[in-house]
Amino acid sequence: MAKPVPRSRTAPADPILQVKDLVVAFPGRRKSVTTVIRDVSFDLAAGETLSLVGESGSGKTTIGRAILGLAPVTEGTITFRGNPISNIARTERRRLAKDIQVVFQDPYSSLNPSMTIESILVEPLSASGATGGRARVRELLDAVGLPANAGDRYPREFSGGQRQRVAIARALALRPSVIVCDEPTSALDVTTQAKVLALFKRIQEVTGVAYLFISHDLGVVNDISDRIAVLYRGEIVEIGDAHQVSTAPRHDYTHRLQMAAPVADPVKQRARRQERLALLATAGPVETAGRTRPPATSTS
């Protein structure tokens, strides 16, 4: 077992991944253009977890897709180890897959149901020309807490949490430097969610991989994150140390997200809901980069 890699709570001067002034826009009807990401900038260090948090439609997943080459970069730059990766050719993107991987929200839809787990894990190794596929599969299954005979089974034979472990193993197959985790625990129950988050942390301590962790829940990302960036309608309204953002937010919108996170104690949950409703009732427009936007509405 490799020694744990020390984690840093602050962003270093030489990040492994850097997003600067990112704008993502999509064409609409009648030559209209919809801008979903506006002037977003952040960096990510080796061995660090930066979480992007926001409500549905805030643009957090679009940022992850832009980094993976699945969404267009209209303006701004994305660099990996100092090299631009915005809108690169497919051949370059395939080579980059060795360094930047992804774990999607729904583990079942991201796994081919007609392939065994071993075939799923061998596939990226074969595509990259790596040797020793079967030995690496056993190593990966052990790393995510699955038995060696799991390789002979199909995705449908596993629970949601086990399928997500398979998805994590596949992302680790090529020993990437960065993994984009797109809501990887939102489809899991609370107990399984905690186990998968603990697995992410353990893997990071051993491998030094960096995570860009995407979530709508401040409560989920607080423990796993070094830093948190809060998004509102395509813009970052607050970014900072995870503990500070989660427990003492400086922006009103972050405070609303904090109040929206559920707690186990029903009395505290009732008080939190009342506080959130009171906060929404008195909320003014949200300030984002000099622009004023109406506050988010509550459906709870």
Distance between the termini: 46 Å
Form type: globular
Spatial extent as radius of gyration:
20 Å
- How much of the sequence is in beta strands? 15-25%
Low-confidence stretches: 1-9, 296-300
Biggest sheet, strands in spatial order?
6-7-8-3-9-10
State the secondary-structure class.
alpha/beta
- Helices and strands, in N-to-C order? EEEHEEHEHHHEHEHEEHHHEE
Overall average residue pLDDT: 85
Number of helices: 10
Helix content: 25-40%
Largest sheet: 6 strands, mixed
Oligomer: single chain
Q: How many β-strands, per DSSP?
A: 12
Q: What do these coordinates show?
A:
The structure is a single chain. With 300 residues, the chain is of the alpha/beta class. 35% of the residues lie in helices and 23% in strands. It has helices spanning 60-68, 90-96, 117-127, 133-143, 160-172, 190-207, 218-221, 242-247, 252-260, 266-282, and strands spanning 17-27, 33-44, 49-53, 75-80, 83-84, 100-103, 178-182, 210-215, 227-232, 235-241, 286-288, 291-293. The strands form 3 sheets. Strands 6-7-8-3-9-10 form a 6-stranded mixed β-sheet, sandwiched between helices. A hairpin with a 2-residue loop joins strand 11 (286-288) and strand 12 (291-293). Helix 5 (160-172) runs parallel beside helix 6.
Layout of secondary structure:
Elements: E1 17-27, E2 33-44, E3 49-53, H1 60-68, E4 75-80, E5 83-84, H2 90-96, E6 100-103, H3 117-127, H4 133-143, H5 160-172, E7 178-182, H6 190-207, E8 210-215, H7 218-221, E9 227-232, E10 235-241, H8 242-247, H9 252-260, H10 266-282, E11 286-288, E12 291-293
Parallel strand pairs: 3-8, 3-9, 6-7, 7-8
Antiparallel strand pairs: 1-2, 1-4, 4-5, 9-10, 11-12
